[in-house]
């Protein structure tokens, strides 16, 4: 029977791997997710065949309660709230691994097992509380500003030292439960401490990193209970989170250490003089320009989702296409609040995915674009990132909308963007500002067309 | 016979490299479903928790296992369902 279970785990691992491979294209991704979930089902059924199980009652109760909560959340969550949900799920995964690590504890265990128990508790604990803080910041249940206080580094250092010492003591004296208990408490405290100094704008990096940790915690738990499917699945998730973290850091031109330790936005002051003047445009004049355009690029930012404007944008896109124009969307990697977030929001508004272009695909063709429409985006289209060396975002890759023949910027007022940085784009000769609520402005354009 | 810890570490090493290869091929468009799908896969801890929750000992370890089963089940069920919900919205241009 034990051999059968192990073979089932191999099948399950193969299904996870194949499922992830199918995620390589939007056309096959949904099937890939089905395949991956079949792999999970196989693994769970195999685990239930374990002969050490004599009482199924609590397993069933746990699966039913957890499954019901999961199903409810999955059905009801808004697409705009996806970052919060992923943050919360990262935390649950971390906590589950912490609990498995604790439950696997036995004073007679080998040193290697004790080390892996400590690791699953440490990574799981940091993931759990770190994710709860990230959830609080993303859902605005707590301030999204960085929380810093005097001697913060010293407190963090003391916690790390405390974790190392109590972990070593636990491994040497596993009979005393106290040291393990201390590792649990300090890990939970450390999770809070690492995430509170990170500002709201950097949360895409943080949830990617915590996503990775939740996988690594499962990996460590796999070592603790001697189960290789946990190791395979956990390391796939760990690798995924690390890659996304790198992509997010690169898109913001910042190193991971800079994101984790600097508290972005605290005291960034910039004094660039911007040449030129702001040129507003009316909805009617904007319509005449769009009516004559044969190629239009829409550059959305999170402001578009806040204004709930994606559905009217899609409507405008259809009218432009009927008018003979080619319409594409240029999506910056940090346009939303988590990796790929903007794509999901636009897919929800029925924008076909083949019209969602990545930054590196839209930039080379920007010169042939007649009108680039910037909606709710600011820093990701800021030419200062290319031109102004003193700018805090200098070096960050941006979408070069200023190369388009005409740029429309939809903006509520002249206030600076999220990072509080002046945007020279607004003063360029080919830029026209369409002031007002994005949803109403687009609605006005739609009325002009029909 | 290879010692268990060497064997497990060997698996770890291979699957990390495999993970990097696989995930690098996922287009940016699908990064959010990738993350929620990863949430679901990290719920694999449920497999480790099941045997701990079913010992029938009624001790602390069993209760820890029970809570782990419940939490990991949220991830598994919620993660796969929400990923499916998102992926169903991705459509190609018709015609």
TrEMBL record, chain A:
<comment type="similarity">
    <text>Belongs to the PNT beta subunit family.</text>
</comment>
<keyword id="KW-0521">NADP</keyword>
<feature type="transmembrane region" description="Helical">
    <location>
        <begin position="86"/>
        <end position="106"/>
    </location>
</feature>
<dbReference type="GO" id="GO:0008750">
    <property type="term" value="F:proton-translocating NAD(P)+ transhydrogenase activity"/>
</dbReference>
<dbReference type="InterPro" id="IPR034300">
    <property type="entry name" value="PNTB-like"/>
</dbReference>
<keyword id="KW-0472">Membrane</keyword>
<protein>
    <recommendedName>
        <fullName>NAD(P) transhydrogenase subunit beta</fullName>
        <ecNumber>7.1.1.1</ecNumber>
    </recommendedName>
</protein>
<comment type="function">
    <text>The transhydrogenation between NADH and NADP is coupled to respiration and ATP hydrolysis and functions as a proton pump across the membrane.</text>
</comment>
<dbReference type="InterPro" id="IPR012136">
    <property type="entry name" value="NADH_DH_b"/>
</dbReference>
<feature type="transmembrane region" description="Helical">
    <location>
        <begin position="112"/>
        <end position="135"/>
    </location>
</feature>
<feature type="domain" description="NADP transhydrogenase beta-like">
    <location>
        <begin position="6"/>
        <end position="446"/>
    </location>
</feature>
<feature type="transmembrane region" description="Helical">
    <location>
        <begin position="205"/>
        <end position="223"/>
    </location>
</feature>
<keyword id="KW-0812">Transmembrane</keyword>
<keyword id="KW-1003">Cell membrane</keyword>
<dbReference type="InterPro" id="IPR029035">
    <property type="entry name" value="DHS-like_NAD/FAD-binding_dom"/>
</dbReference>
<feature type="transmembrane region" description="Helical">
    <location>
        <begin position="56"/>
        <end position="74"/>
    </location>
</feature>
<feature type="transmembrane region" description="Helical">
    <location>
        <begin position="6"/>
        <end position="21"/>
    </location>
</feature>
<dbReference type="Pfam" id="PF02233">
    <property type="entry name" value="PNTB"/>
</dbReference>
<keyword id="KW-0997">Cell inner membrane</keyword>
<keyword id="KW-1133">Transmembrane helix</keyword>
<keyword id="KW-0520">NAD</keyword>
<feature type="transmembrane region" description="Helical">
    <location>
        <begin position="229"/>
        <end position="249"/>
    </location>
</feature>
UniProtKB/TrEMBL annotation, chain B:
<dbReference type="GO" id="GO:0008750">
    <property type="term" value="F:proton-translocating NAD(P)+ transhydrogenase activity"/>
</dbReference>
<keyword id="KW-1133">Transmembrane helix</keyword>
<dbReference type="InterPro" id="IPR024605">
    <property type="entry name" value="NADP_transhyd_a_C"/>
</dbReference>
<protein>
    <recommendedName>
        <fullName>proton-translocating NAD(P)(+) transhydrogenase</fullName>
        <ecNumber>7.1.1.1</ecNumber>
    </recommendedName>
</protein>
<keyword id="KW-0812">Transmembrane</keyword>
<dbReference type="GO" id="GO:0050661">
    <property type="term" value="F:NADP binding"/>
</dbReference>
<dbReference type="GO" id="GO:0006740">
    <property type="term" value="P:NADPH regeneration"/>
</dbReference>
<feature type="domain" description="NAD(P) transhydrogenase alpha subunit C-terminal">
    <location>
        <begin position="10"/>
        <end position="92"/>
    </location>
</feature>
<dbReference type="Pfam" id="PF12769">
    <property type="entry name" value="PNTB_4TM"/>
</dbReference>
<keyword id="KW-0521">NADP</keyword>
<keyword id="KW-1003">Cell membrane</keyword>
<comment type="function">
    <text>The transhydrogenation between NADH and NADP is coupled to respiration and ATP hydrolysis and functions as a proton pump across the membrane.</text>
</comment>
<keyword id="KW-0472">Membrane</keyword>
<keyword id="KW-0520">NAD</keyword>
<feature type="transmembrane region" description="Helical">
    <location>
        <begin position="6"/>
        <end position="23"/>
    </location>
</feature>
<feature type="transmembrane region" description="Helical">
    <location>
        <begin position="60"/>
        <end position="83"/>
    </location>
</feature>
<dbReference type="GO" id="GO:0005886">
    <property type="term" value="C:plasma membrane"/>
</dbReference>
<feature type="transmembrane region" description="Helical">
    <location>
        <begin position="35"/>
        <end position="54"/>
    </location>
</feature>
<keyword id="KW-1278">Translocase</keyword>
<keyword id="KW-0997">Cell inner membrane</keyword>
